[in-house]
Amino acid sequence: LQMVKRKIALLGATGSIGSSTLEVAIEQGICISFASAHTDYRKLIAIAHKHNIPKLVLSGIDDPALLSSLRQDNPDLKIYAGEEELLNLLRNEDYDIALNAITGSAGLRSSFAIMERGKPLALANKESLVMAGHLLTKLVKDIPIIPVDSEHSAIFQAIGKHPTAEIKSLHITASGGAFRDLPLSEFPNITPEQALTHPNWNMGAKVTLDSATMFNKALEVIEAHWLFGLPYSQLSAIIHPQSIIHSLVEFIDGSFLAQLSTPDMKLPILYALSYPERVASSLVKTDLRTLSNLSFREIEPTRYPLFFLGLEVAKSGGLHPTVMNAAVEAASALFLQGKIAYTDMMWVVYNALDTVPNIPHPDLNTIIGTNKEVYQRILHSKTPRFF
C-alpha cells in the first residue's frame, strides 16, 4: 500500500523528529505545506529548498532587519516570524495533518490551534498534555490525538480497537538513559557531555538529558493518562535497556501485546502520518536474528529521583505539572551551562513545587503565564537550587 497523498504542517522541522519526518516525507511523497523552527533560519531555509516547502515560520525570531534580509535573499519563499504568525498559519493554511515536534512548553499553543481547527494532531510534544491535558483532550472529537512518541505509538497500536474495560495496565519502557549503570557515587561529578550521550537513541539535548534523569518517563506517564483515559494506578514504567520493545499493553485476561522494532523514530512518525492505515516502507528494518537478549529491570528511586517526584506531581494534577515542567526546563538549562550540578536539578524542581501553590483546574493563560514565570525566576536566581 502507498500512503494517500497528504499535506502536512511540520512544526520543529530542524530538530531530530523533524529530520526523521523529512525522510518519511521523501519516501512517501508527502507534501509539506509549511514548516517551522525556533531560530535556526539557516537550516530551515536549506530544508525548504531541498524539500520544496513554500512557507516557513521562525517562531523565536523578533528581528525585523534579519527577517527583511532573509526575504530578500530568498524571494521564492514566504518567510514569517513569531509565534502569532505560526498560529495564524495553523488556523488558516491548507494542510491535512499537523505534526507538532516543537521542543518543550513552546509547543503548547500550537497544539491548541491545531485541535481547535479540527485537524488531526500528530503529537511529539509531551508538554501539551503534561501541562494542559485536562483542556486539550476536551477538544478531541472524531479524530484522536495520534501519538508520535515511540512509547505511546506502541501503546496506541497495541490497544487498537480494544475498549478501556479490557485493559489491565500499560507498561511504558525506558532505556535507562546514559547513567543506568553508572555508580551512584559518581553522580555529583556528571558532566553535560556525559549526560548528552544516549546509549540507544539520537535525540536533541533536552530530550536526551530528560532520558538520563528519567524525567521523560514521568512526562510519558502523564501523557499516557490523558491519551488513553486510564488512572495512574494502571500505568507503570520499567527499564528495558535494549529499546526494542517500545511499550506493552497488559489485558485483563493476562495477555500482553507489545510493539517491537529497531529504535528509530521514523517508524512511529510514519504510522502517525498514515493512520489509520499501514503503508509499505523500507526506512526501518529489524532483523530478529541479530537482536540481543531482551531484559527488564525496576527503576531505582536513588538513581532516578525526578521520575518518582514526577509521578507524585502527576497524581496531584492541577497547576503543579506545569510548575514541575518549567523547573526542569530551567534546571536543565542551568546544568548544561555548568551553573549547577547534575544532582542539584532534583532540588531545583522540589523547591519550586514547594514554593508555588497548586491550582486544581488552571486555564490556558494561567498555565502559560506560570510556566514562563517559574522558568525565568529559576534561570535568573542567584540561588536557583532554593528558588
Give descriptors for this structure.
alpha/beta, four-stranded mixed β-sheet, 15 helices, globular
In short:
This protein is an alpha/beta fold and 387 residues long. It is 43% helix and 14% strand. It has helices at residues 16-28, 41-51, 64-73, 83-92, 108-117, 127-136, 150-159, 192-195, 205-213, 215-228, 266-274, 305-316, 320-336, 345-355, 364-379, and strands at 7-11, 31-37, 55-58, 78-81, 97-100, 121-123, 146-147, 167-174, 235-239, 245-251, 256-260.
Our measurement of the CA-to-CA distance between the termini, rounded to an integer number of angstroms, reads 55 Å
Mean pLDDT reading: 94
Taking pLDDT < 50 over at least 5 consecutive residues as the criterion, the unreliable ranges are none
Backbone shape: globular
Order of helices and strands: EHEHEHEHEHEHEHEHHHEEEHHHHH
What is the β-strand count?
11
Proportion in β-strands: 5-15%
Number of helices: 15
Strand order, sheet with most strands: 4-3-2-1-5-6-7
Please give the largest β-sheet. Answer: 7 strands, parallel
Radius of gyration: 20 Å
**What percent of residues adopt helix (DSSP H or I)?**
40-55%
- Label the structural class: alpha/beta
